[in-house]
Amino acid sequence: MRAARVWHAVTFVVAAAALVLQTVLVITGSAVLDETAVPPLGTRLLRLVGYFTIQSNVLVAVVSWLLLRDPGRDGRGFRVLRLDAVAAITVTGLVHLVLLRPLLDLEGADAVADALLHVVVPLLAVVTFLVHGPRPRVDLRTAALALVWPLLWLAYTLAMGAATGFYPYPFVDAAALGYPQVLLNGLGVAVLLVTLFALAGLVDRRLAPRPAESG
User: Fold this and answer.
1) pLDDT in tens, 160-170
2) What pLDDT, on a 0 to 100 scale, did the predictor assign at position 95?
3) Distance between CA 136 and CA 113 in Å, rounded?
4) Tens of pLDDT along 6-31?
5) C-alpha dist (Å) from residue 214 to 74, 147, 208, 209, 210
6) pTM given for the model
7) Distance CA 114, CA 104 (A)
8) 212 or 89: which carries more pLDDT confidence?
9) Are 80 and 146 a contacting pair, CB within 8 Å?
């Protein structure tokens, strides 16, 4: 329990620090991805909270805080939240590595925030999940409910993009790619998420303590 709390605490602190740093950079007018102009503060903050990266890091911070308080926490809502956090932060790291990192040329605090949000937090979250669980917490109903948030995120992103012309990532830019291609990209991410849900469930079953071990 003590070791688990340490890992959850470290993950929470790093995720929270990364979110605070990125928010400060946005408030001070730091560029995000390929923006060449600095929009008004309210617009910058609205765009910030719409990023999948930011939302997945928030989920990790929330889950880590809950597990820091109770490393054996359970409940349907918590199971969905935790599965979303682990899978989404993994997607964040993978998509950033494969698709987004080549587009970025960051220095100083911007590079630090980028590394924390896209590399350090994903690694901490995944390692903590593998080593400290708790488990078992993944089942078919949990996986089905965990798909709701990513689908809502995509719907919100496309709606906001249609209304404002801003899309947080190139692969969801319907104005440039068209809706068929964006939906195809979204399907690809959904398949990746379902695959991660299945892998999380497999890990959960394989590493779950046996009755003799948990007694």
Assistant:
1) 999 998 998 88
2) 84
3) 33
4) 999 999 999 999 999 999 998 887 75
5) 15, 30, 9, 6, 6
6) 0.91
7) 10
8) 89
9) yes
Written as one string, the DSSP assignment of the chain is -HHHHHHHHHHHHHHHHHHHHHHHHHHTT---TT--S---HHHHHHHHHH-HHHHHHHHHHHHHHHHHH-TT---HHHHHHHHHHHHHHHHHHHHIIIIIGGG----HHHHHHHHIIIIIHHHHHHHHHHHH---S---HHHHHHHTHHHHHHHHHHHHHHHHHS--SSGGG-HHHH-HHHHHHHHHHHHHHHHHHHHHHHHHHHHHSPPHHHH-
Cα distances from 135 to residues 71, 129, 175, in angstroms, run 10, 9, 43
